[in-house]
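Input record, target 12 of the design panel.
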């Protein structure tokens, strides 16, 4: 089993700076925290991408951005345009929210087209796409279907939660996601990942990315350093 040192755990964390009330100074502060721990990315709101890219310039930490956040009910064309603009401003990964309402309605064709539109903007420019399923609203069988649609639409990861829904990631949801697409896609646990033990639990299940906000510092500070120091 992998030894999840501070360095190893940090490189799986998308450090989120997504709270509604955050101002530019908050975004810069969160980017500095992300750079301090050398996380996988700092994830920001679309209009914060340029600010984050400037704040992270010279570090090895890239910018990720949310698309269609937090509810996912934008027109597919709007999500695609938002994806393009985020990439224009410096984002290299996009965390898009699936249209949960249309998915639960059974309009799978629209849901797949929605994801495909973002992928079509991202992949030609080297950007990656994560699809937020908001698993708190889905049954295990629906999680399977959402994963399959995301896979067929060409996305790179499936992700549990926005953190703005009615519930966080759960080991049960991650288990379903890993069994369904874990061999061909990345799986990201997000929502409720606030401590080292929870983070390692999801990583040991096979996740290769975690979403964390207020818990990033705690996770990293409570992880063992390389060499045990």
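The sequence produced for target 12 reads:
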């Amino acid at each position: 089993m992998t030894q999840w040192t501070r360095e190893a755990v940090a490189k799986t964390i998308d450090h989120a700076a997504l709270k509604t009330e955050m101002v530019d100074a908050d975004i810069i502060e969160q980017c500095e925290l992300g750079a301090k721990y050398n996380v996988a990315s700092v994830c920001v709101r679309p209009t914060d991408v340029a600010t984050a890219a400037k704040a992270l310039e010279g570090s090895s930490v890239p910018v990720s951005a949310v698309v269609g956040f937090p509810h996912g009910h934008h027109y597919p064309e709007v999500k695609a345009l938002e994806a393009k603009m985020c990439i224009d401003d410096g984002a290299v990964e996009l965390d898009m929210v699936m249209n949960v309402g249309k998915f639960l309605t059974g309009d799978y064709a629209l849901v797949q087209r929605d994801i495909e539109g973002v992928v079509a903007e991202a992949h030609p420019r080297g950007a990656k796409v994560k699809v937020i399923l908001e698993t708190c609203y889905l049954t295990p069988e629906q999680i399977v279907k959402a994963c399959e649609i995301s896979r067929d639409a060409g996305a790179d990861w499936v992700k549990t939660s926005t953190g703005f829904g009615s519930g966080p990631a759960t080991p049960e949801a991650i288990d379903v996601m890993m069994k369904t697409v874990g061999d061909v896609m990345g799986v990201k646990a997000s929502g409720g990942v606030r401590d080292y033990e929870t983070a390692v639990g999801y990583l040991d299940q096979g996740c290769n990315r975690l979403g964390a906000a207020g818990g990033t510092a705690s996770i990293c500070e409570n992880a063992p350093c390389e060499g045990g120091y």
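The beta strands are 13-17, 41-44, 63-67, 91-97, 128-132, 157-159, 186-190, 209-212.
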